[in-house]
Amino acid sequence: MSEKINLKLKVWRQNRGEAGRFEDYEANGIDTDASFLEMLDVVNEEITLGGGEPIAFEHDCREGICGCCGSLVNGKTHGSHERTTLCQLHMRHFKDGETVVIEPFRATAFPVIKDLIVDRSGLDQIIAEGGYVSVKTGNAPEASTTPIKKEMAEASMDAAQCIGCGACVAACPNGAAMLFTAAKVSQYALLPQGHPERTQRVLGMVNKMDELGFGNCSNEYECAVACPKGIDVKNIARLNREFVKASLTSEK
Amino acid sequence: MKLDAKIPEGPMAEKWTNHKFKVKLVNPANKRKHKVIVVGSGLAGASASATMSELGYKVDCFTYSDSPRRAHSIAAQGGINAAKNYPNDGDSVFRLFYDTVKGGDFRSREANVHRLAECSNLIIDHCVAQGIPFAREYGGHLDNRSFGGAQVSRTFYARGQTGQQLLLGAYGALSKEIKKGGVTMYTREEVIDIVVIDGVARGIISRNLVTGELSRHEADAVVLATGGYGNVFFLSTNAMNCNASAAWRAYKKGAAFANPCYTQIHPTCIPVHGEYQSKLTLMSESLRNDGRIWVPKAKDDQRPANQIPEDERDYYLERKYPAFGNLVPRDLASRNAKMVCDEGRGVGPTGNAVYLDFAEAIERLGRDNIEAKYGNLFEMYNRITDEDPYTTPMMIYPAVHYTMGGLWVDYNLMTSLPGLYAIGECNFSDHGANRLGASALMQGLADGYFVIPNTINDYLASNNLPTVGTDHEAFAEAEKAAQDKLDKLLAVNGNRTVDDFHKELGHLLWENCGMARSEKGLKEALEKIPKIREEFWKNVNVPGSADDLNQALEKANRVADFMEFAELMVKDALERAESCGGHFREESQTEEGEALRKDDEFCYVGAWEFQGLENEPVLHKEALEFEEVKLSQRSYK
């Protein structure tokens, strides 16, 4: 059964182009069945009626699939509950009277836009370098032409689940986007459709990642722990193999 | 306004092929001279942008999200239909067409639906070629599952994340074209008005959601792919930012709005549990393949589910509709859930829920099998409710999910405002009064990949559109009107938040214009809505400023449109004094209490024309004719 709890919040507030700071708020009478974002909604209603400006945070689907939401909660991306996005974190995991620290994702390549909202457009730029199969509408052969081993399709799907939230980047001490990039490279490396472009895909995406200021991988595995979709760190190994192979065979 | 659906001549199965041959083409070298604006980057918007760019058009694509990959198509769980007939169970293009017309309760346009069914197979081919990891059988071939309203297995799926995978495929295609320079992507840009010059759509006004800056964009045609209006109810399964604003502004600029009262209430959602609740979560309809829906036979039975013996349970769908059982179409499943709860046989703390029980399926197939099929859905349910569906039946209740109504479009998907197109959920065209499961993804992608890239040529080739320049007075006026409205919202400085008003409006609509409607209830809503709207403009509190990232202002601007749209929706519901598809009109039922459709009076598309806010809108009726699927009362018994 649900109950009501009271929390103390320390929330990062920052305006565009200014330095940020923590501010204190109280979240009172929060239903333990509410989600973390619904708790923030309640706090924002109070801030608004009190004449203040509500806390800006990114969110949309609130069912853990769009990848919009994400903040550091007590230092952990999406909070400390494993395989969860912030919108699917429920207040029953907090204790009455607890102090909760809420900050934006911290990474060199994710500048803060406002409060808890960061700019993750670098992830789109990485995808644009080859995170797809270049097939024009109308080019496709009949769908059943090429059978694909079920195990391969499943492994590809495991990687394809990435929601692009950026938690892996924020959790990495180097601010690397290796898990994100690896997931996309793996999805296509595991399927025959991805093979014609595999060389330029991995080289293009990795180069873009470096260019945008995402850090290097030093095998901390924090990314895999932070990933709300449980994307396996083995994908990074696959990315490295793809990269080495591509570097050796690329004709450019 | 005269509505001309422009349905091509010829036999049903040949209309689309003939039409593609007859439309005028723009030669490849001239395509790059045309710019098309696409608003929205969901399945329809991303696929249309990518495909038009592949053809050579210059495309500007707009989304209010930080990335095109966020659109709410991503949340579709169950799958996408296609008439491949891989399971060899008798499927065909005609059967998919037939099921969709019948499932839509004979309120859709046959020619459009047939084209949709024809495109379905091309979509699967294309998505497989894109590397979308659809579920496969051990032999390596594509797997199918069944969905409500069909007796064949024609649904392709990628676990419970089909929408995500298809959207990421379309996003990949879009990214490819962005990289090539064919598409210019505008993220965190919200389109807030359509610019009309000499009676045709020539551009948009957008607002940068980070800086608040308004900007003007000119084009030869504008395509709206802005989704549905389910969030008018406040609580729905839509994402928080889904809104009706672009479609509503288009309506106010002269595009007719069709069937706004057609909303789909999805039968399997997690029930409402508190005032703080911000949205409802859907549990895929695919769960009805193995889950059995029941309530206690007795009223007010407070025992936990596992203490209610088998003979005291009412598996009401299996009892009433033996041929389809738990797989009846969505509208029937929803209405029956409401009926048993209204009888006092609902379960859970609020009494507004029914059980969806997997005990029998787990016994028959084994827990591992159920976990492989539905694991992620069960996990999601557990996360939200803190209950384990492997041991305790799920509790579900219907919730607003999809809107079949939308901007009126002709066969080319052009609205009644020339140069303005509407694709995907934001048009009215293919689902009639009720959408079948796994058909939304199909429609979004059919419109985007295959329909609009063919039909838009005809408009661009037939019209010699002069460059007008964004300093044209129509752009200046639209920009000023947008700015004035934002300033007005900020200036109210009242005592109630935007959400507070939105909840009040949503609650009224759910009670009076939801699953069951009556003349009395609708008239009452029509009296109340203008009062809520009036108070909104006097007493809303929108903090912050217009030249900053201001989420409260974004929301207020959208809710202000919902306040107007709601009235049209209720008017349309009042006008349609029949029960059909997604909605049940209390005055129109059979002796057994089943929905009674009235084909003599209401076999039409109701398209509303704006006449200014102070005046009554004018209703235009596009008569629906059924050549191939004979008009009949639906029976799933």
From TrEMBL, chain A:
The keyword Metal-binding applies. PROSITE patterns: 4FE4S_FER_1, 4FE4S_FER_2. GO terms for molecular function: electron transfer activity; iron-sulfur cluster binding; metal ion binding. The keyword Metal-binding applies. Residues 153-182 form the 4Fe-4S ferredoxin-type domain. Its cofactor is [2Fe-2S] cluster; [3Fe-4S] cluster. Gene3D superfamilies: 3.10.20.30, Alpha-helical ferredoxin. Keywords: Iron, Iron-sulfur, Metal-binding. GO terms for biological process: aerobic respiration; respiratory electron transport chain. This is Fumarate reductase iron-sulfur subunit. It comes from Pontiella sulfatireligans. The gene is frdB.
TrEMBL record, chain B:
Residues 502-636 form the Fumarate reductase/succinate dehydrogenase flavoprotein-like C-terminal domain. One of its GO terms (cellular component) is plasma membrane. Its cofactor is FAD. It comes from the Bacteria. It is an enzyme of class 1 (oxidoreductase). Keywords: Cell membrane, Electron transport, FAD, Flavoprotein, Membrane, Oxidoreductase, Transport. SUPFAM superfamilies: FAD/NAD(P)-binding domain, Succinate dehydrogenase/fumarate reductase flavoprotein C-terminal domain, Succinate dehydrogenase/fumarate reductase flavoprotein, catalytic domain. It is a peripheral membrane protein. GO terms for biological process: anaerobic respiration. PANTHER family: SUCCINATE DEHYDROGENASE 2 FLAVOPROTEIN SUBUNIT (PTHR11632), SUCCINATE DEHYDROGENASE FLAVOPROTEIN SUBUNIT (PTHR11632:SF53). This is succinate dehydrogenase. The gene is frdA_2.
